[in-house]
Design goal:
CATH architecture: 3-Layer(aba) Sandwich
Bound molecules: S-adenosylmethionine
Structural class: alpha/beta
Strand content: 15-25%
Strand order of the largest sheet: 4-2-1-6-7-11-10
Number of strands: 11
Shape: globular
Number of helices: 7
Length: 228
């Protein structure tokens, strides 16, 4: 069964932040669920979520193994963890919406840059009006890395595969806006990661730029991290 040390470190900070943002009750689609540790932890911690994990075909069986072993109980009140579905953001098939939220962690820098617009467009298409797209991971700003550890991580990724690399938050925001979504928040997370939150249907415009969590500092932000 796949196991990620990084997930063990980041799952609780992610849960604490998602608990603030996720509508409830809500159907949530997770893209690139990987080992499934986030899916299990989040449905154990946060109530009233109907969580749909997904992965590319080659990793889907590994993901399902964790769901079978850990994803049945004990879950938070009213939460459910569905069996994994196959989803490649470029090839689909995307499941039928509407979802209250689409969550993805540490995927935008692993998939080729050309896949990221598919991720954003696909999410926009399955979100209910006002639904949230939440992306967790390292992001640069205006082409500049926000920390030396992220610059090193980016160089490492590109040395393995030039198609991988830390993506720019401004670029992702532009992609989201092109799909009719508005930027709601950019939350600093531990180890120089961030949680970018977008709302379908111009929710950000209605809430204004002072929306909760916008550029909020995270007390645990600090040392470099290694990621899966
Ligand atoms: C670094 S892992 C992150 C896994 C998990 N979300 C986590 O945080 O531990 C990156 C994931 O992105 C997925 N991925 C890469 N390209 C993808 C694509 N085109 N569509 C969907 N998922 C993709 C991979 O299969 C992999 O599971």
């Amino acid at each position: 069964m796949l196991f990620s040390e990084a997930c063990e470190r980041n799952k609780q900070p992610i849960a604490a932040e998602l608990a603030r943002w996720l509508p409830r009750p809500a159907r949530v689609l997770e893209i690139g669920s990987g080992s499934g540790q986030h899916a299990v932890h989040l449905t154990r911690q946060i109530s009233q979520l109907r969580w749909q994990p997904s992965e590319r075909a080659e990793q889907c069986l590994d993901l399902q193994q964790r769901i079978d072993r850990e994803g049945r109980s004990p879950l938070a009140a009213g939460s459910q963890l569905a069996d994994a579905i196959t989803l490649d953001v470029c090839a689909g098939p995307w499941p039928a919406g509407p979802y209250g939220a689409v969550f993805t962690a540490n995927t935008a820098h692993i998939m080729p840059a050309s896949a990221v617009p598919h991720l954003v467009a696909g999410a926009a298409a399955v979100l209910a009006p006002g639904g949230l797209l939440l992306l967790y991971g390292p992001f640069s700003d205006g082409g500049q890395h926000t920390a030396p550890s992220n610059a090193a991580f980016d160089a490492h990724l590109r040395s393995i595969d030039p198609a991988m690399g830390v993506r720019d938050a401004d670029w992702i925001t532009a992609l989201a806006e092109k799909q009719g979504m508005g930027a709601l928040a950019d939350v600093a997370m531990p180890a120089n990661n961030r949680l970018l939150v977008f709302a379908a249907g111009g929710e950000a415009g209605r809430l204004g730029a002072g929306a909760v969590g916008l550029n909020a500092p995270h007390p645990g932000n600090g040392p470099p991290d290694s990621r899966c």
